[in-house]
Amino acid sequence: MSEIRAVGIDALVKSLGVVATIRFLQYEDSGYGDYSPDRHDWLKEEKLDVVAEKIKKYKNKM
Question: I want to staple 20 with a disulfide (CB 3.0 to 4.6 A). Which of 8, 16, 49, 57 is the partner?
Answer without folding.
Answer: 16
